[in-house]
Amino acid sequence: MAGPTLMAEPGEALTVETGAPATREWPAAGSAYWALLVIVLATFITFFDAVTFGMLAERIKHDFGLTDSQLGFLAGPASIVCYLFVGIPLARLADIYPRKYVLAGGAAAVGLVISLGGLAQTFTQFVGSRVFLAAGGSAHAPSSYSLLADAFPPKKLTRAFALLQFGFIGGTVLGPLIGGKLVVMSATWAPTVIGPLTIRGWQWILIVMGLPAVLIGLLFLTVKEPSRMAPAVDAPKVPADAGFGRRVLTFMGLDALKAINAKPRVYYPLFGALALSAVEVFGLQFWRVPFMVRTFGWDEAQIGAALSVTVLIGSLSGLLLGSVMVEWLAKRHKDANVRAAAICACGVMVSTIAAILMPTPWASLILFGISGMFGMAGAVPQNAAVQRVAPNEMRGQVTAFYLFMFTFFGAMGSFVVGRVQDVVVGDPTQLWKALLITAGTLLPLATFLMIRAIKPYREEVERLEAEGR
Questions:
Q1: How far is Cα 200 from Cα 220, in angstroms, rounded to an integer?
Q2: Which domains does the chain have, with CATH numbers?
Q3: pLDDT tens digits, residue range 88-101?
Q4: Who is most buried in 104, 110, 239, 357, counting CB within 10 A?
Q5: Alpha helices in 198-332 (DSSP H)
Q6: 8-state DSSP, 468
Q7: How far is residue 195's CA from residue 219's CA, in Å, rounded to a whole number?
Q8: Could you give the CA distance from residue 246 to residue 283 in angstroms, rounded to a whole number?
Q9: How high is the pLDDT of residue 28?
Q10: Could you give the CA distance from residue 324 to residue 339 in angstroms, rounded to a whole number?
Q11: 111 C-beta neighbours (distance < 10 Å), count
């Protein structure tokens, strides 16, 4: 009987005993692309909510009487409190249970919590809704990446990750366009009183916005679960006599953390670069609308219409740029994924800082679009890089730790900018200074770390290829 398998050339495997090639049967293309489509829809809802919530920032601040620090906390740290406790365990579910069920439950939970946020009557209740929002969505990315990696052959996996970005593009394009118009329109709606609840006009946006996510959760039940890629022969196992505490720690991701810590030169620069850039990117994403309102006097509808154009052009250009760049670099370098991400990080740094300093709103938005282009171009190779070197048997957990850096530090971004604004700058009309301070500090450091990651990543890829994986 053939033993465990190791991945060789794309679409092939090698049996441990004989080393003979064994063809892996990949799911039918229709099933794979249907799974991808449903994941794209779920990703769309996540980013549509995030962007629309940012469009509501000034309304929320006014109606709840918040400082910029409180507003930043609501948009960021409040959403990752639960993630600290359930993010990795839920990602572990993606490694041991059918991923379509994990994705279905997460999508339905996200929709429910978004709608409940529309019923909040106090700042504390609003914080509570954002706390549980991230908990519902914490297993989405690890489960999605793990499922796609088993649904698409290696030669087509980068294409699948590229198509996955359409969920992000759709959310960040339609979020400003539709959200901006809804925010301005809802400003004329009188509050609705239902028993003890007073629902402000803009809160109806959140109530309705959560319903599609519940429907997408049902769509995940129609996805065909692909068979998992065989784990590596040296996959760590929990000893049979391990105690309850050891098993709990394993479920919480201890072995994945050990795998990461065992190769610090490979993972730490990648994780660090992602964390620093996430603080800036998410902070800017949330504060971009208040920046345009306070600096140039535009309203949400004007900002949304302009943002939708620049984001769409920038995102599509980024997908094209990223794919062309990686393919060109892959012909010359084994570290093409990380090398491309480092080049794109430089582009994000320069264009973001320049955008903040522009004297006109359109010049600023165009440069923000260019920054988004480089960010999109670098996102696909970054994700592919981690999938390439992560151990098969714990890919979901390693991805969860990687995305934890993105989620946790990204969620801190809005709060960091808010604190810099309140404590360092002080003048609410000078928000651009807070954005400039954070961008000028964090993005150069992130770019430096990504450059440092190139060599160790190349060496790890060469090692895996030498072992036939």
A1: 33
A2: 26-227+238-466 (1.20.1250.20)
A3: 666 667 777 888 89
A4: 110
A5: 203-209, 211-220, 244-251, 254-261, 264-296, 300-330
A6: T
A7: 34
A8: 38
A9: 85
A10: 13
A11: 23
Name residue 119's amino acid: L
The tokens describing 302, both together, are 């004007």
The predicted model scores a pTM of 0.65
Strands of the sheet containing 5-7, edge to edge, are 5-7, 12-15, 21-23
Residue 110 CA to residue 355 CA, distance in Å, equals 33
What CA–CA distance (Å, rounded) separates 401 from 43?
Answer: 19
Length of the chain: 469
CA 317 to CA 312: how far, in whole Å? 8
Closest CA to 289 of 184, 446, 442, 438: 184
Tell me if residue 189 falls in helix, strand or coil: coil
Tell me the CB-side half-sphere exposure of residue 325, using CA atoms within 13 A.
26
406-428 tens-digit pLDDT: 777 877 888 888 889 888 998 88
- pLDDT for 234 equals 40
For 130, half-sphere exposure in the C-beta direction (CA atoms, 13 angstrom radius) is 21
Residue 234 token pair: 């040296």
Backbone phi, psi, residue 153, to 5°: -60, 155
Note the pLDDT of residue 255: 61
Handedness of CA 338, 342, 344, 349 (dihedral sign): positive
Q: In this structure, are residues 70 and 107 in contact, taking their beta carbons and an 8 Å threshold? A: no
pLDDT digits 0-9 by tens, 441-467:
999 999 999 999 898 888 888 887 777
C-beta separation of 87 from 138 below 8 A: yes
Residue ranges of the chain with per-residue pLDDT less than 50: 1-22, 231-236, 244, 246, 248-249, 251-252
Strands (E), 304-427: none
